């Protein structure tokens, strides 16, 4: 079982970036917690962050052939702009959950639309970095042979 955790632009700044919105947890913390959670369930986690749209598209394409069974993605601002990331996710047909640390629906109108949500299995918004863990819990349950 292999899960890809993808983070988009500016999420490398987690922990110092607008902490009143995104909290104090760093991306390294998020990735370490996710890795531990996946390994405890007998799965493997590959974590990748990029500020570049094409690099995220490439990582999604690579997941098609490396045995990845599920993707957890916080596309950052590309959520609201990227047809390319939507097409990549639809193209590889790997189920994914979209995560947003903040409640985008409480924020500026331009954050209310996502190019990904209608092709996602589900969307978690506004639960802080716990949202990654909840998405991963879903991914692990859906990949486990005993899952119903
Ligand atoms: C975000 C919300 C986006 O609108 C924003 O551009 C981000 C982070 C979130 O996790 O709340 O970079 O995806």
UniProtKB/TrEMBL annotation:
The record marks 17 as: Transition state stabilizer. Its EC number is 4.2.1.10. Belongs to the type-II 3-dehydroquinase family. Catalyzes a trans-dehydration via an enolate intermediate. Keywords: Amino-acid biosynthesis, Aromatic amino acid biosynthesis, Lyase, Membrane, Transmembrane, Transmembrane helix. The keyword Transport does not apply. HAMAP family: AroQ. The lineage of its organism: Bacteria, Pseudomonadati, Pseudomonadota, Betaproteobacteria, Burkholderiales. One of its GO terms (molecular function) is 3-dehydroquinate dehydratase activity. It comes from Aquincola agrisoli. It catalyses: 3-dehydroquinate = 3-dehydroshikimate + H2O. Pfam families: DHquinase_II. The chain crosses the membrane at residues 115-135. The keyword Chloroplast does not apply. This is 3-dehydroquinate dehydratase. One of its GO terms (biological process) is aromatic amino acid family biosynthetic process. It comes from the Bacteria. It is an enzyme of class 4 (lyase).
């Amino acid at each position: 079982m292999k899960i890809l955790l993808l983070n988009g632009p500016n999420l490398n700044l987690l922990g110092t970036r607008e902490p009143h919105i995104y909290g104090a947890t760093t991306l390294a913390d998020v990735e370490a917690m996710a890795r531990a959670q996946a390994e405890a369930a007998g799965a493997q986690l590959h974590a990748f962050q990029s500020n570049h749209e094409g690099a995220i598209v490439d990582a999604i394409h690579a997941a098609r052939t490396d045995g990845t069974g599920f993707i957890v993605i916080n596309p950052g601002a590309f959520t609201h702009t990227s047809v390319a990331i939507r097409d990549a996710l639809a193209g590889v047909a790997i189920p994914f959950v979209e995560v947003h640390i903040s409640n985008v629906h409480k924020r500026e109108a331009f954050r209310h639309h996502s190019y990904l949500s209608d092709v996602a299995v589900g969307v978690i918004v506004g639960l802080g970095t716990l949202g990654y863990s909840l998405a991963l819990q879903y991914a692990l349950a859906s990949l486990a042979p005993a899952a119903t």
